[in-house]
Automatic annotation (TrEMBL):
Origin species: Filobasidium floriforme
All residue ranges annotated as the Phosphoribulokinase/uridine kinase domain in the record: 30-152
Pfam families: PRK
Protein's name in the database: Phosphoribulokinase/uridine kinase domain-containing protein
GO terms of molecular function: ATP binding; kinase activity
InterPro entries: P-loop_NTPase, PRK/URK
Length: 413
């Protein structure tokens, strides 16, 4: 994750300088969301340290959303206190209105004032009021927490006041593995079976709830294992969890949000679709992530029967075509050509396998569409380079492909 930390800090410093150049004195506000036990706190702190190091002064401050937990005394006043304590960490067990007021003040202030935020004490198991000081020197504020991008009011209104909303993705199967191991290591559960049950029935559904209700995100980060982000504090209460503090082992610390492959695809597509101004580097990174997700999906269907494998093939081909188009648009001719050649061979391979595998008609259509796309792209590349011999070759292959398609799809007499 070191590259993510460096890239993030550089981007934040640049964004703040742009605000300053535009005559805006307000602070830059960034929300970082992650699932239960995601390591988002450690990632936020690492980015903050890097921003301050590069800047040569303390211009960045991290605020944890955990400070807006209702206290235990306040939970005692709920209609069902027992249920409220058991669910502590659910979005309705936070003082969301107070959090919204805080973010609104951050957004509307000139940046030259001092604002205080609560923290969360794991020894007291309660918030500590006004414990975090955001001074005039803190021109970048990172707010990390489970619900900083939740599309449920008033969280959603607060989220839209942020300049950036980042979400960190991890494949659900890996998330489950990390979570149950953490539960056993921390003593929450005594054995793997109980720990897996807790992960599957509590943590994973909570992550799905979050990812199905996100305000438009501006950046997607893929999780990787990284000991650099090993936590040095107790596990923050940021989702329904036992009331005791939980030391999180360094070996299992992810910077992640729990995401099923379906939701990962949805989020990446949403970011590309709803942020047309996204720079080409970011778009390429998102599309490359989507290709990898599609490859993982296809690999997981290797022994599957039914419709899973054909659909995974179709999604992979569509993702690779989008990626190749973006490479071409970014004038990365060599990479675009290599991607086009892969697509051409992949499409041919699907057709060759069809006799044995009996793919659905739509899958064969996508495979042929992929070949036509690849041939057109290769033709465009070689024509721009003046390679007329190769242009003729691609034209001939396309003509044969279209003739074969017409012949095979013609109704039999």
């Amino acid at each position: 994750m070191q590259q993510v930390i460096c890239d993030s800090s550089t981007a934040l410093i640049s964004r703040r300088q742009q605000l300053k150049a535009a005559g805006e004195s307000r602070r830059l506000l960034v929300g970082i969301t992650g699932g239960p036990g995601s390591g988002k706190s450690e990632l936020a702190l690492a980015i903050c340290r890097e921003v301050n190091r590069v800047s040569g002064q303390e211009i960045c401050r991290v605020v944890g959303m955990d400070g807006w937990h209702y206290s235990r005394a306040e939970l005692d006043k709920f209609p069902d206190p027992v249920d409220a304590h058991q669910r502590r960490g659910a979005h309705d067990t936070f003082d969301a209105a107070a959090y919204h007021t805080f973010v609104e003040r951050l957004r509307t202030s000139s940046g030259g004032d001092t604002i205080r935020a609560p923290s969360f004490s794991h020894s007291l198991k309660d918030p500590v009021a006004d414990d975090i000081v955001i001074g005039p020197e803190h021109q970048i504020v990172l707010i990390e927490g489970l619900y900083v991008a939740l599309d449920v009011e008033p969280w959603a209104s607060a989220a839209r006041l942020l300049d950036e909303r980042w979400v960190i993705l991890l494949h659900e199967q890996l998330a489950e593995e990390r979570i149950w191991r953490r539960h056993v290591a921390s003593g929450i559960c005594n054995d793997e079976s109980t720990a897996r049950s807790r992960a599957v029935n509590n943590d994973i559904p909570n992550g799905r709830f979050l990812l199905s209700r996100l305000v438009d995100t501006t950046r997607v980060i893929e999780s990787v294992e990284d000991p650099v982000l090993a936590p040095n504090s107790n596990f923050p209460i940021s989702a329904p969890a036992p009331s005791k503090s939980i030391p999180e082992p360094a070996a299992n610390n992810p910077a992640l949000v729990i995401a099923s492959p379906f939701f990962q695809h949805e989020i990446i597509d949403k970011v590309i679709r709803q942020t047309p101004g996204t720079d080409m580097k970011t778009t390429l990174a998102l599309l490359a992530s989507k290709v990898r997700l599609c490859e993982d999906d296809l690999a997981s269907t290797a022994t599957s029967s039914g419709d899973d494998k054909p659909r995974s093939i179709e999604k992979l081909l569509e993702a690779r075509m989008a990626y190749a188009s973006c490479l071409m648009e970014d004038v990365q001719i060599g990479k675009a050509e290599a991607e086009a050649l892969k697509l051409l061979e992949y499409g041919k391979g699907i057709e060759r396998q069809n006799g044995e595998t009996e793919y659905p008609h739509r899958t064969i259509q996508v495979a042929r569409k992929t070949q036509v796309y690849a041939l057109d792209l290769l033709r465009e590349i070689d024509e721009s380079l003046g390679k007329q011999g190769r242009v003729k070759r691609w034209d001939e292959q396309k003509a044969k492909l279209l003739e074969r398609t017409t012949r095979q799809e013609a109704p039999s007499s």
